[in-house]
């Protein structure tokens, strides 16, 4: 009797479970910010170990000089190997496994597709390498173009006369087709645009770097608020994390850090806007004073410097003359980092010269030459005194 009763009870319970509403699939909670940040830190460490192993193998095979020359490519190879063997194969990375988190691509908790994983790996490894390589090449070509233009400035008149006499037979030649003329015009426009990019990119590079840093900080601010995408490549690929470990009673959030970062970004934006407005006002007043218009004292308009301080007409005229004379006399002594006259010229081991403060700040961020990417250290920087660089 007990056995039958127990059997009936078990059957009724199973029937009730099957006859009721279908059980919903288990939904894992989203990963918290500390888990995502800890996993990213672990992955960076393991990727650095793989890169160092590739560098040692490359050094033993081809020598130290070749390994130093191709250090960026070796770093790309190490990071690509790490992420291809983990994320590319559909497995957890070592950092994700350590923190009990897993990648998902949609709000339904489905794993990312192979195409999305490959896209993330390209964003994580290849895109930064290509951007850095192309930027360094453009900067080097721009500097070489400026040097060649300065060297050929004396011969520009004779070359312009020679080239002015050459187009006449081309215009009078009846064998030139219309398509060829359009193609030549297109090539000329592309060549002109390329030369413009080469000339302007060294001056635009600091603004591009500031924009990238601002984008990274903005993404970090959104991560502190919503807790989804810690890195820009994961945001671009649409990959987020869920927590698959044991449920925790308390999972801290970092919204307060997002508020602090938002305040910092607002202060930086206001300061940048103030400086740009003051520099515009100062440059316009300089143009008016140099063009023979009434002076600022006669018009009652104060003259401001870039910091917003009022300066007199006499002092302003002297400083403007000194600035123009110094810029004219030292046209070649421009720092490629701050784009102004070099202060305390400092040479690196590869031979490039920068400002002392500029190259020291750069070396704190990246221990390599900004132009040729040669590894440098603080102790290898040499300050040059009594020079006309």
From TrEMBL:
This is RING-type E3 ubiquitin transferase. It is an enzyme of class 2 (transferase). It comes from Oryza sativa subsp. japonica (Rice). Keywords: Membrane, Metal-binding, Peroxisome, Peroxisome biogenesis, Protein transport, Transferase, Transmembrane, Transmembrane helix, Transport, Ubl conjugation pathway, Zinc, Zinc-finger. InterPro entries: PEX2/10 (IPR025654), Pex_N (IPR006845), Znf_RING (IPR001841), Znf_RING/FYVE/PHD (IPR013083), Znf_RING_CS (IPR017907). It catalyses: S-ubiquitinyl-[E2 ubiquitin-conjugating enzyme]-L-cysteine + [acceptor protein]-L-lysine = [E2 ubiquitin-conjugating enzyme]-L-cysteine + N(6)-ubiquitinyl-[acceptor protein]-L-lysine. Residues 1-30, 150-177 are annotated as: Disordered. Residues 1-20 have a biased composition (Gly residues). Its main location: membrane. It comes from the Eukaryota. Residues 157-170 have a biased composition (Polar residues). Pathway: Protein modification; protein ubiquitination.
């Amino acid at each position: 009797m007990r056995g039958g009763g127990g059997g009936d009870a078990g059957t009724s319970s199973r029937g009730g479970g099957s006859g009721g509403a279908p059980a919903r699939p288990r939904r894992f909670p989203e990963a918290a910010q500390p888990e995502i940040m800890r996993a990213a830190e672990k992955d960076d460490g393991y990727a650095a170990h793989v890169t160092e192993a590739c560098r040692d193998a490359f050094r033993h095979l081809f020598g130290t000089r070749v390994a130093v020359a191709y250090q960026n490519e070796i770093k790309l190879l190490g990071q690509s190997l790490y992420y291809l063997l983990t994320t590319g194969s559909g497995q957890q990375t070592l950092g994700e496994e350590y923190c009990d988190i897993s990648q998902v691509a949609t709000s339904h908790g489905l794993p990312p597709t192979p195409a999305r994983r490959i896209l993330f790996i390209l964003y994580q490894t290849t895109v930064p390498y290509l951007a850095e390589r192309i930027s360094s090449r453009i900067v080097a070509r721009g500097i070489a173009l400026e040097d060649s233009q300065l060297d050929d400035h004396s011969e520009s008149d004779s070359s312009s006369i020679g080239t002015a006499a050459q187009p006449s037979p081309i215009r009078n030649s009846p064998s030139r087709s219309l398509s060829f003329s359009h193609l030549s015009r297109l090539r000329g426009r592309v060549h002109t645009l390329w030369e413009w990019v080469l000339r302007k990119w060294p001056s635009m590079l600091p603004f591009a770097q500031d924009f990238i840093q601002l984008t990274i900080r903005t993404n970090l601010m959104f991560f502190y608020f919503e807790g989804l995408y810690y890195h820009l490549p994961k945001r671009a690929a649409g990959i987020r994390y869920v927590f698959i470990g044991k449920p925790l009673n308390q999972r801290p959030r970092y919204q307060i850090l997002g508020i602090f970062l938002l305040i910092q970004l607002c202060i930086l934006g206001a300061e940048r806007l103030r400086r740009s407005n003051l520099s515009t006002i100062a440059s316009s007043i300089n143009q008016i004073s140099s063009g023979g218009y009434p002076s600022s004292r006669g018009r009652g308009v104060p003259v401001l410097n870039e910091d917003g301080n009022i300066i007199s007409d006499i002092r302003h005229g002297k400083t403007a003359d000194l600035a123009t004379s110094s810029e004219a006399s030292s046209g070649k002594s421009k720092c490629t980092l701050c784009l102004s006259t070099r202060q305390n010229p400092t040479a690196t081991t590869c031979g490039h010269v920068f400002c002392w403060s500029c190259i020291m700040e750069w070396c704190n961020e990246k221990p390599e030459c900004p132009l040729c990417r040669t590894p440098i250290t603080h102790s290898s920087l040499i300050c040059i005194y009594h020079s006309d660089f």
